[in-house]
Fold this sequence. Notes:
The structure holds two protein chains of two kinds.
Chain A: E1 21-26, E2 28-29, E3 41-42, H1 48-62, E4 69-74, H2 82-96, H3 98-101, E5 104-109, H4 116-124, E6 129-135, H5 139-145, H6 151-163, E7 168-175, H7 182-195, E8 199-204, H8 212-218, H9 227-243, E9 247-250, E10 253-255, H10 262-268, E11 273-276, E12 281-284, E13 287-290, H11 295-305, E14 311-313, H12 317-328, H13 337-343, H14 355-364, E15 368-371, E16 378-381, H15 389-400
Parallel strand pairs in A: 1-4, 1-11, 2-3, 4-5, 5-6, 6-7, 7-8
Antiparallel strand pairs in A: 8-10, 9-10, 12-13, 13-14, 15-16
Helix pairs in contact in A: 1-2, 1-11, 4-6, 7-9, 12-13, 12-15, 14-15
Chain B: E1 6-13, H1 19-30, H2 47-52, E2 59-67, E3 70-78, H3 86-93, E4 98-104, H4 111-122, E5 126-132, H5 141-152, E6 160-161, H6 170-180, E7 193-202, E8 206-215, E9 218-219, E10 223-226, E11 232-234, E12 237-241, E13 245-248, E14 250-251, E15 256-260, E16 274-277, E17 296-302, H7 308-321, E18 326-332, E19 336-343, H8 346-360, E20 364-366, E21 373-376, E22 382-385, E23 399-412, H9 416-425, E24 429-435, E25 440-448, H10 449-453, H11 456-463, E26 469-480, E27 482-489, E28 492-493, E29 499-502, H12 506-520, E30 528-534, E31 537-544, H13 560-572, E32 577-580, E33 583-586, H14 587-590
Parallel strand pairs in B: 1-3, 1-4, 4-5, 5-6
Antiparallel strand pairs in B: 2-3, 7-8, 7-16, 8-15, 9-14, 10-11, 10-16, 12-13, 12-15, 17-19, 17-20, 18-19, 21-22, 21-23, 23-25, 23-26, 24-25, 27-28, 27-29, 27-30, 30-31, 32-33
The site of guanosine-5'-diphosphate has 19 residues of chain B, from helix 1.
Amino acid sequence: MTFPRTSPPAAPLPRPEPGTALYVHLPFCATKCHYCDFFSVPAEGQDLEGMVESILKEAAQRAPRAPKTLFLGGGTPSLLPANLLQRLLDGLQELTGWRESVEEASAECNPESLDSDKAKALLDLGIPRLSVGVQALDDEVLELFGRVHKGQDGLRALEAARDAGVAQLSADMIYAWPGQTLKRWEDDLGAVLELTTQHLSAYNLTYEEDTRFKRWLDQGRLSKAPEDLELALFEVARELCGAAGLAPYEVSNYSLSGHECKHNINYWQNGTYLGLGPGAVSKVGPVRAGNPRGIASYLKWIDTCGHATQWRDEPDESTRLAEGWWLGLRLAEGLDPAAVRTAAHWQGDPAQDPALPVARELVDLGLLETSGQEAHERFRLTPKGRPVADAIAVQFLRQLGGNQDPKPTPEGPLE
Amino acid sequence: MNTGQIRNFAIVAHIDHGKSTLADRMLEQSGAVKKRDMKAQLLDDMDLERERGITIKAHAVTIPHKKDGVDFLLNMIDTPGHVDFNYEVEKSMQACEGAILLVDASQGVEAQTVANAYLAIEADLEVIPVLNKTDLAHARPDEVAEEIENSLGIDATDALRVSAKSGEGVTEVLDSIIDRIPPPTGDSNAPLQALIFDAVYNEYRGVIVYLRVMEGTLNRRDKVLMMGSGKVYEAVEIGTFRPKMTPCEALGPGEVGYFISNIKTLGDLRIGDTLTLQGKPAQGMLPGYAEPKHMVFADFYPTNPGEFEEMREALETLLLSDSSFSYEPVTSDALGFGFRCGFLGLLHMEIIQERLEREHDLDMIQTAPSVTYKIKRKSGEEEWVLSPGALPNPDQYEEILEPIVRVSMLIPAEYVGVMMTIATEHRGVYVRQDYLSTTRVQLVFDIPLAEIMYDFYDKLKSATRGYGTMNYDLQGYFADDLVKLLILVNAKEVDALSSIVHKSRADIRGRTVIKKLRKEIPRHLFEVRLQAAVGSRILARESIAPLRKDVTAKCYGGDISRKRKLLEKQKAGKRKMRQVGNVDIPQKAFLSVLGSDDK
Lengths: 415, 599
Ligand SMILES: Nc1nc2c(ncn2[C@@H]2O[C@H](COP(=O)(O)OP(=O)(O)O)[C@@H](O)[C@H]2O)c(=O)[nH]1
Ligand code: SF4
Ligand SMILES: [Mg+2]
């Protein structure tokens, strides 16, 4: 048993320069979904107001001025009552002036806590983009997922947001759940696409460590969708989104032109960002650092020190490059090796870029393709490479990451 | 001490017949160990030994025993009971005048009983048959006595009947050791001749040498000379085992004890060497023992090629405490730098491998164990081939010779037919069969060692419902129609996966191996093609379809470090794998070349 320390174990990253992307993690949800490995806890009995105050205190020390994007994630930000959302967003405004600087401001919402009032409140507070966790439309599956809402609630929430005037609406969907058929997926996607005309994220269900789903999978109570079906579900999502005018700009993300999520694109371009709240991660320069995935230590450390930096991750040069390729290749536009080197703070001779031989090997296998001239050559996934993007990421990490063992991620004290 | 009051004996028995238990009971009755100090099987002290319930190292202990008012010291040498460790048994025998032949009265005579008893008889020891476990309801001492007579020609009508478990009859065993085993002879004033019959490495004390004084006297602080190796040491400490090491000033003729000097590694020591005084050397050496015979070889490669040196150090350290395996550097086209290790048998190999991983935290790839072959060059010269991968092209040699062992199986009579079939299927050649009693038969076959290495013993066990046992001895190297079975991965030969097989089996073997590899090798981003071939003739092919879908991981919230670690874990899952070309081959795949063929 570890006892919460009185002060955070790591030094905070320096305050990033003005314009840096700002992320705020609100770690409360109605219940904990069975597949979820984000840091979130059931809201019941939690001090939401105290959390908002702590986040503002952390922001005072760490938040960049004039962020270009703001993203309220979680957890379930929509679960906060309007007055607390206002306290948070006004407080951040005082500290950063985000309302004047942002090109995009989003909040994640879940059907059970998104009605037209909440949507209006968010719009009024300066958040025009809502991303709704619809996930599935089948009541039984939602129950299996451990979610509190029904299928119809997802559609109703989208409708309410749209009717409240949300013009940047996104839906999150999960596919390849146990028992899903192609037909079901087509029907569900079709229904959702009728209501979200701007943006859609479709994620393959993953069985993450330390989740109930993983345990059930290991126990044989759940079974993974067959590979062929996963592939078909993936392709169908591309087709249906395409037919609805949403182009795939990332392996799992589709949007109308101009509605791509700028905040997330920054992650995929391996950019700089600052995260506030428990479990939130920041990247400044080549260094990433994170807050504890625990409420008590977060609150305590913010209270004593104004920051809660629990760990730092300073991957070596070539691992940083590998990360850059892994993330950048997810984008439909692909990547420019020079841009990857810059984002990775890679100092070496470009001719010696160790990612290039790996990439060329993948080109030979028909998994990557190149475009443009020698000097401005870009790489991107081919249709064959797209559905195996994670395996390709492992190739880069493996061949560039040397033999170093992954350092264990320090976890916060259990609560 | 007067040699008339000393007896030196070994206990030879088949595994599990109760040797360790009997030893414990003897120690307890003699008062050498207080009952509350007894751990079950006091003499087996390595973790691994306890876990596996087998005695690996011979241990010596001195048991005081009073008979008719006279104090005696009985030196007992505990010996291993597994066929792999036969050579240790041989060593121990040389230090004794007699042996207790311990037979489980319910199991009866088994293969190791016979093998070890013959070792004792050959060493000219007085053999005292003892029937153990007579407390068991299904004990059949009369029949077993008959089996002893028929199999070994030893009169067992008056064999002692004991229960090592309860202690019943154990005093009688001690008494008969005194009555029947001749006391050692030897002149305490003669030049020193002591036999080194074992040695162990202790982390704190260094090498502890087990010795038996044959002639003369060894005094503490004597400068001693190892007559075989020519090395000189000082006897810093000498003593006896009671059962703890108990220092003393002198060891005289017939006594069994230890000496400690500044010997750094077991490698510096030759078991079987004769120890004498530097100042007053003996005329000649005692008859020594043969070097341990390495029956099985396998290559160990570090999973991470950068850990070659660590591996060398680990092997060196291990050799300190087990001088009975060998290693030498090898290179493989597929696996890079590693070590070819020789073992007494498969069990010995497993023990070494486990110790390397457990005690030295090494991740390694191990190739399938194989026997050593010889080739006869056109010139008539014979040459060793230490691994199948090292076999030259067929035009380079006349024939391949393989080791043949004489396998003696002791089985219930009703299973003779089925064991004959199994032995024949393993290219066995019938030698003879003897009835030990109306129900037990000794069946003897000459079989290629390669054929019995893997699962022959398991087959014997299952075919005889657990009642059969076996033992084997090397007969020599003989030619047969052998070919090298090549395995190609994406058209590239992987030397570490090749094997030498009988020509008539090559097809089926090839198909089986390829099928297994298909199961063991994970899917890649590209198709993996597997082929088995002899020369340029392809015998079997399979392919592993490429991955088609592996995407997924949601990644936003910027938690990229964690995600990377998850991906790296997939990579770490590949720790027990080696890349050959660009194909990941897991450890288990390297063992696929072993095993039974599909029917
Ligand atoms: N019933 C019974 N069991 C015994 C007797 N002697 C040994 N055993 C059991 O037989 C097993 C093997 O004994 P062990 O001394 O390890 O045999 P070893 O392999 O010859 O050293 C153990 O489970 C003992 O408890 C005996 O006299 N009677
Ligand atoms: S609502 Fe989202 S963050 Fe909350 S538990 Fe479910 S999946 Fe996780
Ligand atoms: Mg034992």
